[in-house]
């Protein structure tokens, strides 16, 4: 019984993080049409920066706030420079989509290797609320509970932002029909750049949260990118609620496999996707 | 679509294949430069170059015209490596290569049937996931049931590997040349231009895609089996190295996707760059790789061969090639100055990088100039 409770709580925490990561990727793909395979590198950079900030004596929660504008600027600037040039140079929308994905692979090589030059490849970590509490028999560290609360709060805030705010509504309009949205006077290019930036921020928040409860290293990015890609396929490309549900499902699967056979969890994720593609090719919430 | 390429007459279309066979036959005499125990450096370098030519040209046969970006090269390459590791003691190299190819063919066909029905980026994600899936699965199996992490591979003399790869390159190049002109190649490029239209005129699109994907995976698996025999020790992260998926893509995009010569030029340039940088400047290699990849995607979307092919006037083509050669000479001089100053770096790194820079800059300058003329 206690094992089951442990699996559920671990699944919730992993699911929260996965949902956060995949919502960012889903937004970047759904609106800006960029399948950002360097997404995990934003997670890694934020996690490493948090570790640097903590080393300077800054509280981790303040580091979370500091990392947001930084990752936003990196994402925004990348979009208004190289992705804009790429858009001009590649003729069709389909060509732009596949070229943008390949370009992100180039970014992945650059980011991960520069980070490795600066910080080395050894795992690093810091102490943050390591005390544990007893939740009905399951022993859980306080930092994990804080991480779960922040992840859920950010996810809900982000969803409310998309559904209620003026900018959120223009983002949704741009994702449904960019041409018509542009005719109605929206600055589509700016909205796309902002979306890419917001996606980077969500990855950055996830990175800081991950560094709060576990050790991080400069090679961690690709694993999270793969998980985000799987979640986005699972939930349906470009669907934000789909990413949340898919993230939770993957979190629970990962948590269950963590108890049975940890090294097989990646294999399990992949098999889920294979089965899903055979049954429902557009994903759970796909249009 | 390029029916006119390479001459229209029946005899004309056999000129290029004959040149290919003659060049490869000439290269086979390189084995004389070293003994079977101590191969010369040129043979060792050519094993790498030929290996990448197989990967790049095979990738280009399917992904170039069809536009479906496959990132599964490392998966089938790794399968080939493991076939060599498991059966290398008992079977001769050609049999190993055919076996590895057959296994890759079957797995690629299964993956293709499942994922190639879908449009868009699903296929790319899946083929990339396949690399990681096989890596984790084999690592888990080896640790759990065989209680080992890596394996040693029975080594084969370099000259034998070189000759086997030479034959494989010949087959792949001839296949690439004839597929471009066949109905099958037309169907593939039709899928790339407009899949619905291709389906409407009676092309069985899924079948064409699956056959092309599986057949090119055969060559990739065979190349893996051959290259493995020079590796001595392998484990899943080495065998299923994701770089092997990206190198062919970069080589093809840099050289020119969908062209015949592009992948070969890209493979030769980047293999030399890789060999020299990984021995002298291993830390910078990946950063340079990523930078060149981004620059060639953004500023050279048609690749070297495609950019030259697009230019109308002969003078501009010659000028561009001349400028590139000039930049390479400057790079060569720069290397000499650095050597005199005591900095040691592979002799061809700066000539290649300078040449790439010169080509990219002036290709864009010429294009802009042409645009102004039109306006």
Descriptive overview:
The complex is a heterodimer of chains A (287) and B (375). Chain A has a single domain, classed as ABC transporter involved in vitamin B12 uptake, BtuC (Orthogonal Bundle). Helix content of chain A is 77%, strand content 3%. Chain A has helices at residues 2-30, 39-55, 60-89, 93-119, 142-164, 166-176, 178-183, 188-213, 221-235, 240-260, 265-279; strands at residues 132-135, 138-141. A two-stranded antiparallel ribbon of chain B has the order 1-2. The longest helix of chain B is centred in the C-terminal third of the chain and has 28 residues, at 314-341. In chain B, 46% of the residues are buried. Classes of the chains: A mainly alpha (287), B mainly alpha (375). Chain A binds chain B through residues 35, 82, 85-86, 89-90, 94-95, 97-99, 101-103, 105-110, 112-114, 117, 222, 226, 229-230, 233, 237, 261, 263-264, 266-267, 270, 273-274, 277-278, 281, and chain B through 67, 69, 114-115, 117-118, 120-122, 124-126, 128-130, 132-133, 136-137, 139-140, 143, 242, 246, 249, 253, 283, 286-287, 289-291, 293-294, 297-299, 301.
Shape of chain B: globular
What's the order of the H and E elements of chain B? HHHHHEHHHHEHHHHHHH
Taking strands numbered 1, 2, ... along the chain, how are they ordered across the largest sheet of chain A?
1-2
Radius of gyration of chain A: 19 Å
Please tally the helical runs of chain B, counting DSSP H or I stretches of 4 or more residues. Answer: 16
List the helices and strands and how they pair.
The complex is a heterodimer of chains A (about 290) and B (about 375).
Chain A: H1 2-30, H2 39-55, H3 60-89, H4 93-119, E1 132-135, E2 138-141, H5 142-164, H6 166-176, H7 178-183, H8 188-213, H9 221-235, H10 240-260, H11 265-279
Antiparallel strand pairs in A: 1-2
Chain B: H1 15-27, H2 41-66, H3 73-87, H4 93-115, H5 122-146, E1 151-152, H6 158-181, H7 183-193, H8 195-200, H9 205-228, E2 233-234, H10 236-239, H11 243-255, H12 262-280, H13 282-299, H14 303-310, H15 314-341, H16 349-374
Antiparallel strand pairs in B: 1-2
Helix pairs in contact in B: 1-6, 2-6, 2-7, 2-9, 2-11, 2-12, 3-4, 3-5, 3-9, 3-11, 4-9, 6-7, 6-9, 7-9, 11-12, 11-14, 12-13, 15-16
């Amino acid at each position: 019984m206690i094992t089951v409770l442990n699996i559920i709580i671990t699944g919730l925490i992993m699911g929260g993080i996965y949902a956060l990561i995949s919502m960012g990727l889903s937004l970047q793909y759904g609106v800006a049409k960029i399948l950002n395979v360097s997404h995990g590198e934003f997670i890694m950079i934020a996690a490493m920066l948090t570790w640097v900030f903590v080393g300077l004596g800054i509280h981790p929660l303040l580091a979370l706030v500091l990392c947001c504008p930084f990752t936003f600027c990196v994402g925004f600037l990348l979009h208004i420079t190289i992705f804009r040039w790429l858009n001009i140079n590649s003729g069709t929308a389909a060509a732009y989509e596949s070229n943008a994905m390949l370009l992100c692979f180039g970014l992945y090589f650059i980011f991960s290797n520069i980070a490795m030059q600066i910080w080395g490849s050894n795992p690093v970590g810091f102490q943050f609320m390591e005390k544990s509490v007893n939740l009905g028999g399951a022993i859980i560290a306080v930092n994990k509970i804080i991480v779960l609360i922040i992840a859920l709060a950010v996810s809900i805030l982000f969803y409310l932002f998309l559904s209620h705010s003026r900018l959120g509504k223009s983002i949704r309009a741009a994702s449904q029909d960019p041409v018509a949205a542009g005719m109605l006077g929206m600055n589509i290019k700016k909205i796309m750049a902002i979306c890419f930036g917001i996606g980077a921020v969500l990855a950055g928040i996830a990175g800081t949260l991950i560094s709060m409860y576990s050790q991080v290293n400069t090679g961690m990015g690709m694993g999270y990118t793969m998980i985000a890609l799987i979640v986005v396929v699972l939930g349906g490309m470009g669907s934000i609620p789909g990413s949340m549900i898919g993230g939770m499902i993957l979190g629970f699967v990962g948590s269950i496999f963590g108890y049975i056979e940890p090294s097989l969890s990646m294999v399990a994720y992949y098999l889920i996707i294979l089965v899903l593609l055979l049954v429902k090719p557009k994903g759970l919430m796909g249009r | 679509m390029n029916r006119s390429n390479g001459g229209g007459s029946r005899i004309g279309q056999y000129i290029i294949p004959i040149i290919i066979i003659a060049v490869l036959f000439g290269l086979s005499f390189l084995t004389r430069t070293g003994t079977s125990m101590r191969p010369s450096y040129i043979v060792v370098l050519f094993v790498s170059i030929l290996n990448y030519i197989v990967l790049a040209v095979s990738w280009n046969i399917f992904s170039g015209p069809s536009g479906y970006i496959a990132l599964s090269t490392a998966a089938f390459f790794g399968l080939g490596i493991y076939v060599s590791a498991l059966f290398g003691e008992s079977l001769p190299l050609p049999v190993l290569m055919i076996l590895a190819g057959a296994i890759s063919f079957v797995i690629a066909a299964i993956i293709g049937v499942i994922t190639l029905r879908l449009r868009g980026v699903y296929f790319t994600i899946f083929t990339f996931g396949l690399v990681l899936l096989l890596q984790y699965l084999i690592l888990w199996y080896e640790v759990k049931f065989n209680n080992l992490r890596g394996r040693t591979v029975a080594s084969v003399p370099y000259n034998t590997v070189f000759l086997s790869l030479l034959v494989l390159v010949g087959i792949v190049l001839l296949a690439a040349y004839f597929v471009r002109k066949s109905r099958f190649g037309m169907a593939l490029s039709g899928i790339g231009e407009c899949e619905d239209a291709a389906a409407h005129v009676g092309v069985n699109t899924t079948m064409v895609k699956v056959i092309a994907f599986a057949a090119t995976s055969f060559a990739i698996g065979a190349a893996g089996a051959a290259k493995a025999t020079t590796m001595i020790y392998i484990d899943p992260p080495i065998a299923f190295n994701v770089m092997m998926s990206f190198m062919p893509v970069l080589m093809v995009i840099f050289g020119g996707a969908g062209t015949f010569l592009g992948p070969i030029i890209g493979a030769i340039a980047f293999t030399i760059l890789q060999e020299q940088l990984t021995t002298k400047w291993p830390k910078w290699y990946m950063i340079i790789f990523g930078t060149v990849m981004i620059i060639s995607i953004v500023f050279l979307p048609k690749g070297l061969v495609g950019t030259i092919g697009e230019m109308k006037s002969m003078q501009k083509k010659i000028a561009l090639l001349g400028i590139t050669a000039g930049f390479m000479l400057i790079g060569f001089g720069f290397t000499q100055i650095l050597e005199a100053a005591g900095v040691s770096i592979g002799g061809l790194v700066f000539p290649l990088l300078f040449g790439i820079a010169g080509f990219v800059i002036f290709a864009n300058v010429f294009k802009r100039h042409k645009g102004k003329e039109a306006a």
